[in-house]
Structures are given as C-alpha cells and as structure tokens.
Amino acid sequence: MRLLSTIKMNVTWLNGKISPKEITEDLIHLEYDFRKRITQKILLEMEKYDWDALDDMHFDFCPDKKTFSLSLNTPEPYYSHFSSLLKL
To answer: Under DSSP, is residue 15 helix (H, G, I), strand (E, B) or coil?
Structure first.
C-alpha cells in the first residue's frame, strides 16, 4: 500500500458563469470540506475491497452550483461502485 502523502484525489473545477476570482476563498473552503468528508468514505470502502487507487478517483466541481459529482474520468470498477455508493 502506498503512503498517504503520495496519494491524491483529483477535483476538476468546471468552467462556470461565476468568476472564481469573486468567491475563490469560499470555493476553496468548499473543496477542502468535500475532500475531508469524501476521502474518509472512499478509503474505508477501498479497504473493504483491498483497492489502492485513490488517485484514480476523479470529481468535477461546478462553481456555479457549488456541487461535486463523480467524473466520468474515474475508471472502472471504481466509477460504477462509487457512483451508486456516494451521495454527492
């Protein structure tokens, strides 16, 4: 298993109508809270299946709606498994 310091989860900010410069600090806090909340769930679930691929997890962030979604860039079997498990 890899060290946690070398593992990353990917969050892509989608282009929105709101200029991120206007509310960047708020959006960064939202992303931080999201990462903190979702990472624990993902790691616990991956441990059950002996998966080691947090860096394969991709999420999209819509600044306009301030919502996160599991990205289609997430490979299988992770996409199918987590799309039904995670309520974003």
So the answer is: coil
Distance in angstroms (rounded) separating the CA atoms of residues 59 and 70? 5
Write the CA distances from 44 to 22, 35, 41, 51, 69, integer angstroms: 36, 14, 5, 10, 19
pLDDT digits (tens, 9 = 90+) for 47-73: 999 988 888 999 999 888 889 999 999
3-class secondary structure per residue, 25-59: HHHHHHHHHHHHHHHHHHHHHHHHHCCCCHHHCEE
pLDDT in tens, 2-35: 444 345 677 878 776 666 566 778 888 898 999 8
Separation in Å, CA 54 to CA 23, 40, 44, 45: 28, 11, 11, 11
